Structure formats: structure tokens, C-alpha cells
Amino acid sequence: MIAQELLDIEAKGAGSTREKLLAAQRSKVSQPTAAQIQAVYEQNQSALGGRPLAEVRNDIVSFLRRDPEQKAIGEYIAALQAKYKYAAGKSINSPDLKPLDVIATLNGNQVTAQEFETRNRLALNEFEHQSYENIRGDLEISILNALIEDEAKAKNAQPREIIAAEVTDKLRDFSEEERERLESALMDRLFRKYQVKILLKEPSVIAQSISIDNEPSIGPATAPITIVMFSDYQCPACSRTHPVLKRVMADFPGKVRLVVRDYPLENIHSNAFNAALAANAAAKQGKFTEYAEKLYATQDSLDKASLVKFATELGLNAKQFEIDFSDAAATAEIKQDQADGESHGVNSTPTVFVNGVKVPSISASAFRRAIERALAK
Question: If I label 341, which of 14, 119, 160, 262 is the partner at 20 to 30 A Cα–Cα?
């Protein structure tokens, strides 16, 4: 919070923006040499799947620049602290902290604990929910293990035999998503059979008003539940989350709509912005779902030529696709998605909201609970 405040003060005085100030610091970092890039490529060829250097060069450059850029920004913030006479006050983690206690002085102004709480209420609420999800997850695993033991005794078998019959032996593609689905089904069955009730109290939720105008969506527009996913098509976690969301939605037929908003992480995913442009161009021709799933399935090949090839394979009008892809309005719309996401506390992908409430854990059980809670209102 202090770093952001310092940047805003400096930006106002310089007639600039926070983003431009940070970009100026990043630009001071020298580009890695060809030898450095080659060395990283040779050391990580297996992890890169044997892809040619030309295809992964931008990712390697981003990797090599990351630490020097963070160091440059850290030094810049330290210089701003000295310039604007930053001084730490009472620790924000103090057990006897009161609302009006001063936690910092900045540019002659005092920052109170109450200001910190107000400005960071979304992040603090998210931390509370993350803690809840972690504790609940551990609790569910403990209960499940105990129930598997009971099932094994009742069937005169070993626990591993129960797991094999319900999970391991049913695996077909051996994906993480498939294993999670089978484990979740086993837990649901046993929890129903033994009438398990989780009494751990969930923290209160904060619902935000998130715009969904003209955004690509899956499911009926009249659905009482709207899921908004801020996504990056080059993000591996997004590709894993998309099918999980679709599977959970299938458990609530006609009641859930999924709206996708763009949040390409340009600093680490060099092809993410163009992929978002391509998905939106496909949406203009009514092929958003098919095209998005193609992107998630082929994240190693999201260069411009591949994006055009995907459009052709899906039967899109190639000329119109190119026009929509290059439309300045499409770029502006993605930039707006990024700005909106930041205002809603998005800083990574995927970030998922159910009726405006951020889901702290990217899992089928967390999505299902969020939907059930929203339906119960």
C-alpha cells in the first residue's frame, strides 16, 4: 500500500501515471545477451518440450529480465521513501492495534490502521477466505480418510482397495482434472452416506458489481448465477480451470452462466494479449467457446500464424477474423478488462467471481459451494 501511495504522489507531481513510472524503471534493465538466452534454452530444453529457440525466445527474455526488473523497482521505491520522508509507525500486526493508531507517516501525512483496513478490505477478506479454504480442505481430507477406513472395514478390505476401485482403476486419461473429479465424486458419495456436516463457520463475503456488458459467455443470459472468470489463454492454471468450471456448471443445469473477461499477463506471457484478441474475434463470429478451448489446449502454439490457423480450422471467415483481430476497439476492450480486473482485486489468473463474490480457491468444491451459497440467497 505504501509503495502504491508513493508512486501515486510521484506520478501526480510528474504529470505521469503509476504504470508509466514502473515501465521507465523496467526500461533501464539491459536486455539479456544472446549467450545468456542460449544458456537458459540449453539448460531447460526438456521442460520446454523441445520447442525451437525462436518460439520460446520471448519467454526466456522475460524470465531473465524478471529479477533485475524487480530489483530496479525495489531500489526506486526505496528512493521514493527517502524523497517523501516515509517513516514506519505501529506494526499493522500488533495484537492491540486500534483504528486510529498511526502505522506510517508519508509526505507529512499520517496513515492509520483504519485507512489500511478500508483500502485493503477486499484483500483482507480474501486472506480470511483462503485460510478458511485451507482449513476446510484439511478437514475434508481427514474426514474422508476416516470414512475410507470405515468403508474398508465394512467390506473386509484395505483402504487402498477402496481408493483403487473408486479412483485409480477408473482413470482413463490420467489427467489432474480427471483424478480430482473422481476423488470429488468419492468424497461426495461417502459424505452423503455418512451424513457429514461441516460446522466450520465461513467468513462473511464481499460482493462486487462486475460489469459483463458485451463479454463472451457460456450458458443462458437469464441464469440466476453469473460466474465471471478473468482469464489468460496462455496461463496453464486457466486451461485446467476451464473444464472444471464447465463440469460444475453441468451440476446446475440452466442456473449458471460463465462470462469470460480478459486479463492477459503480458509480463510473463508474450502471446496472451494476441490470444485474447483472437478469442474476441472468434466470438464476433459465434465461435468463442470452440476457439477458447482450442487456445487452452494448444498453449505452446499461440503465435499469430497459429491463431489464424485455428480460425480457419474452425470454419471462421478468415478475412473478417483478421479485421476483428486488428480492430483498435478490441484492444481497448481488453485494456478495459485489465483495468476493471485490477479495480476488483485481480492480480493473477484465473480469478473467479460468483455473483460478484471472489472464489478464494480454484477447485470444484469451492466453486460448487459458492454457487450453492448464491442460490440460497
Answer: 14
Site of grid cell 467457446: 289
Query: Strands 256-262 and 87-88, how do they pair?
Result: unpaired
Question: What residues contact residue 144 under an 8 Å CB cut-off, 6+ apart?
Answer: 186, 187, 190, 191
The Cα 277–Cα 366 span in angstroms is: 30
283 — phi, psi (to 5°)? -65, -35
Strand 109-112 with 102-106, pairing: antiparallel
Cβ atoms of 318 and 312 within 8 Å: the answer is yes
Paired strand residues for 259: 217, 228
**Could you tell me the three cell numbers for 86?**
516515509
Q: Are β-strands 256-262 and 225-231 bridged in parallel, bridged antiparallel, or unpaired?
A: parallel
d(CA 76, CA 129) in angstroms, rounded, equals 33
**Residue 328 · residue 315 · CB < 8 Å:** no
The helix, strand and coil proportions of the chain, stated in percent and rounded to the nearest 5, come to: 60, 10, 35
Strand 351-354, strand 256-262: pairing: unpaired
Taking the C-alpha atoms of residue 111 and residue 133, their distance in angstroms, rounded to an integer, is 31
Say how far residue 16 (Cα) sits from the centre of its chain: 29
Q: Angle 275-279-281 (CA atoms, 0-180°, nearest 5)? A: 115
pLDDT tens for 249-308 read 999 999 999 999 999 998 888 899 999 999 999 999 999 999 999 999 999 889 999 999
Contact at 8 Å (CB) between 45 and 250?
no
Nearest CA to 230 out of 252, 248, 208, 250 is that of: 208
- CB count within 10 Å of CB 132 equals 17
pLDDT tens digit sequence for 212-235? 878 899 999 999 999 999 999 999
Which residue ranges make up each domain of the chain?
2-84, 122-193, 217-376
